[in-house]
Amino acid sequence: MTMETVQADPSALGGPALFDTMSTMRAMRRLKPEPVAEELVEQLIQAAVWGPSGGNMQRYEYVVVTDRQVMAQLAPLWKRCVDAYLATTGKYAPEGMDEAAYGRMVAAIEYQRDHFADTPVLIVPCYRFPEPRLDEEGLAASARALGPAGTEHMMTTQTRFQALAEGSCVYPGVQNLLLAARGLGLAANITIWHLMLEQEWKKELGIPEDMATFAAVPVGWPAGNFGPVRRRPVADVIHRDRW
């Protein structure tokens, strides 16, 4: 697997602004401690709310942390999650990424870990998926539509289906949030490492037990520079008409 530096083509469909935003939206982990104005934070959440939600249920909620005392209480949890990641999956560079580049990424991760208490804003997207409304007639019709093999597969993959259904209601909004942050000149990155200690995070933030969390997004003014992302070439990822 190879990666290439992606630079937006100003003539790309949709105009240069959006494509330039996407092609320079790196994960930015080095943040200045200066606060972010409340109106900008609300713009980020507005962008997230504009994102599509599965079934248009719109059952998302966003916990926004700006209080330094609360952030300081979260910092030890963040450190434990990051250390657990770096000791396991994060111990090795991803395929196609050279060791020097990965070393720089790890250094940024460690910097964010060690300065987490100074994070200006932390956004935690949450979602409470409703209980399914099912009846015998509907279940029978579903089984007929799927057929025996499809019904059996659906039953054995229900947990994965539920997780993907929830994610499809949340992550489009999170992507909107990240795009809005880049458009406003703010640095941000998405992580789900907090899920390793989700119950402790929820307790610290007073998040209800029946509310699931889907990400932890630190936001602030960048201490570094935005730049072109490195991604796999488009020709390497397209399968036309079939695999």
Q: Can you give keywords for this protein?
A:
243 residues, alpha+beta, 5-stranded antiparallel beta sheet, 8 helices
Structural overview:
The chain is an alpha+beta fold. Helix content is 48%, strand content 10%. It has helices at residues 16-23, 38-50, 68-87, 99-114, 136-156, 158-183, 198-205, 234-237, and strands at residues 4-5, 60-65, 121-127, 187-188, 212-213, 217-220, 230-231. The strands form 2 sheets. Strands 2, 3, 4, 5 and 6 form a 5-stranded antiparallel sheet that branches.
What is the compact description of this entry?
This protein has 243 residues and is of the alpha+beta class. The protein has helices at residues 16-23, 38-50, 68-87, 99-114, 136-156, 158-183, 198-205, 234-237, and strands spanning 4-5, 60-65, 121-127, 187-188, 212-213, 217-220, 230-231.
List the helices and strands and how they pair.
Layout: E1 4-5, H1 16-23, H2 38-50, E2 60-65, H3 68-87, H4 99-114, E3 121-127, H5 136-156, H6 158-183, E4 187-188, H7 198-205, E5 212-213, E6 217-220, E7 230-231, H8 234-237
Helix pairs in contact: 2-6, 3-4, 3-7
The counted number of beta strands is 7
Task: Please write the string of helix (H) and strand (E) elements.
Answer: EHHEHHEHHEHEEEH
Sequence stretches where pLDDT stays below 50 over 5 or more residues: none
Counting DSSP H or I runs of 4 or more residues, the number of helices is 8
Largest sheet: 5 strands, antiparallel
**Rg computed from alpha carbons, rounded to a whole number of angstroms:** 20 Å
Residue fraction in strands: 5-15%
Helix content: 40-55%
Distance from first to last alpha carbon: 17 Å
Assign an overall shape: globular
Structural class: alpha+beta
Family: Belongs to the nitroreductase family.
Domain Nitroreductase: 26-221
Organism: Streptomyces pakalii
Protein name: Nitroreductase family protein
